[in-house]
């Protein structure tokens, strides 16, 4: 099994980035968290990210910190992630749901199934769809296809085609499968002629 590759920072750069955690601007705090990427973090830095995930006044910064913790794939955060799927912020809840998925896909789908029954927006709505596609089964068909159908004509919708096709491979009901294919065909036909990929590439 190959070992994960970590980015290595010079001490001065590491300290400069970490200093951004306490910046007054939430944008700088987010940039600082994201700047570490897959770098190997020391315990003190991890502790600061944990604190940000739980206490930062900015919901977007907390979501970024949850994403950073999720990269560690450490089971000790699982309870925190599960609890955070009920955060009042769609951004935090969405990040937390995806984080649960990285540790336990089955549990993530169970949570997503409950959240599907509620009004969800933004990142949480996207996370529910992503979790349903990746870890779910045919029971999520209506939610997944309705979410795709509601998306405006955009690059994001184009990017969603591949995951939707992956999900349809799990569908055994022929009528549902045809409905899913029809959605993709409808989207293709909505693309302006000048922007279309040649038809053969859709086959």
Features:
mainly alpha; 203 residues; disordered N terminus; 11 helices
Topology summary:
Layout: H1 11-19, H2 26-35, H3 43-55, H4 59-71, H5 78-84, H6 90-103, H7 105-115, H8 122-135, H9 141-150, H10 155-168, H11 174-190
How would you describe the overall organization of this protein?
By secondary structure, the chain is mainly alpha-helical. The protein has eleven helices and no strands. The longest helix has 17 residues, at 174-190. It is elongated, with a radius of gyration of 20 Å. The two termini are 36 Å apart.
C-alpha Rg (nearest Å): 20 Å
H/E topology pattern = HHHHHHHHHHH
- Helix/strand class: mainly alpha
Helical percent range? Answer: 55-70%
Question: Strand count, sense and closure of the main sheet?
Answer: none
Low-confidence stretches: 1-8
Gross morphology is: elongated
What distance separates the N and C termini?
A: 36 Å
Count the beta strands.
Answer: 0
Could you tell me the strand content as a percent range?
under 5%
Total of helices: 11
The overall pLDDT average reads 86
Q: What can be said about this structure in brief?
A:
The protein is 65% helix and 0% strand. By secondary structure, the protein is an all-alpha fold.
């Amino acid at each position: 099994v190959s070992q994960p590759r970590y980015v290595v920072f010079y001490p001065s750069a590491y300290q400069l980035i970490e200093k951004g955690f306490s910046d007054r601007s939430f944008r700088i705090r987010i940039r600082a968290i994201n700047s570490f990427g897959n770098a190997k973090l020391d315990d003190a830095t991890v502790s600061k990210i944990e604190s940000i995930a739980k206490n930062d006044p900015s919901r977007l910064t907390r979501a970024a910190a949850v994403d950073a913790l999720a990269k560690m794939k450490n089971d000790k955060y699982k309870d925190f992630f599960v609890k955070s799927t009920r955060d009042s912020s769609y951004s935090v809840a969405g990040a937390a749901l995806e984080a649960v998925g990285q540790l336990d896909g089955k549990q993530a789908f169970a949570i997503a199934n409950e959240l599907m029954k509620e009004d969800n927006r933004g990142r949480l709505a996207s996370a529910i769809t992503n979790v349903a596609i990746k870890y779910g089964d045919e029971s999520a068909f209506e939610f997944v296809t309705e979410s795709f159908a509601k998306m405006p004509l955009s690059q994001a919708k184009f990017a969603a085609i591949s995951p939707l096709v992956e999900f349809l491979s799990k569908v055994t009901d022929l009528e549902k499968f045809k409905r899913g294919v029809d959605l993709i065909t409808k989207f293709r036909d909505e693309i302006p002629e000048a922007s279309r990929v040649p038809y053969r590439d859709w086959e």
